[in-house]
Amino acid sequence: MATVLLKAHLEKLVLEANQKDALATLYTWAKNHDRNLNQEVILLHARFTELKQEVNAGTLDQRDAKIILAQITTSLNYLIEKLPDNASIEVDENETRKKEEKPDPATGPLKILMLTANPAGTTKLNLDKEYARIAEKIQSRQNDFKLTVQRAVDATAFRETTETVKPHVLHFSGHGEAGGEYGGLIVQNEDRNGQEMITPDGLDALFEYFKSIKIDFKVVILNCCYSEEQAQAIARHVPFVIGTTVAIGDELATIFSVGFYFKLEKSGLNIEEAFLSGRVAALVKGAKKPHFVLFKGGQKLDL
């Protein structure tokens, strides 16, 4: 091992177009030395991971990918410039350059798809903060978890992105409404200038379709207000579904997510333990037990 100046080491990695290792190294240093910088690194790393996943899935053309990569690299260089000149880090001089990652095997990482929607006319939510906090919780096990986000979804994007990614965990964050056939999940309309609703009947049909094409869901999380009816509809087709019974505030929704993914990573993917962890995190901040519900095999659990 040798001690080197952090700035010079990171600049070398960037010149070698090795943004992945540069971000990982910067995260390791910032985690122990600069909490504010660490949050910026987490967001940038999540953006880089999202770009890589979109390129691998074929959902982003090469021209757009190059533009986004250049933006990420510019942001990375900006963060590097903020480092103290005397900051140092230990590196292995004999370590060879890492090979490109091989395609995931059939039993590869747990795929988490986060779909968000905050249409015009609805209360503004800090959905990027929730995404960043989730990314932070699974940061240490990048080989075991693959997090993808699709923002501002309409009903078509909800279906097509889910069918493309084929996630094990589907996480919706945004707004919901109770009211049977008049309630549902609120998403963008196709013109991107308003909202539309995916009703419980629509969700029932949608997840029946997902089941028919063999999407291997482990759990669906509806982290939005009044989503119990929607969760019940989905639970006919998915092993575990999480919903809410009240208007869950933005902060409590994020707190639940942090607690859930913390335990999901620690418990070996035990959904019930992860649910309890998320719920107790929210309870400490003022939520009540009945505010969060878990369906298993189509039945609501009394936990």
Short description:
With 303 residues, this protein is an alpha/beta fold.
Shape: globular
Give helix and strand order, one letter per element, not per position: EHHHHEEHEHEEEEHEHEHHEE
Helix content: 40-55%
Number of DSSP strand runs: 12
Computed structural class:
alpha/beta
Notes on the protein architecture:
- The chain is α/β, with parallel strands linked by helices and 303 residues long.
- 47% of the residues lie in helices and 18% in strands.
- The protein has helices at 6-15, 19-33, 35-57, 62-81, 127-137, 155-165, 200-212, 228-234, 250-266, 271-284, and strands at 2-5, 88-91, 110-116, 145-150, 169-173, 175-177, 184-188, 195-198, 219-223, 240-244, 292-296, 299-300.
- It has a seven-stranded mixed β-sheet with strand order 4-3-5-9-10-11-12, with helices on both faces. Strands 6-7-8 form a three-stranded antiparallel β-sheet. Strands 1-2 form a two-stranded antiparallel ribbon.
- Helix 3 (35-57) packs antiparallel against helix 4 (62-81) and helix 9 runs antiparallel to helix 10 (271-284).
- The radius of gyration is 20 Å and the shape is globular.
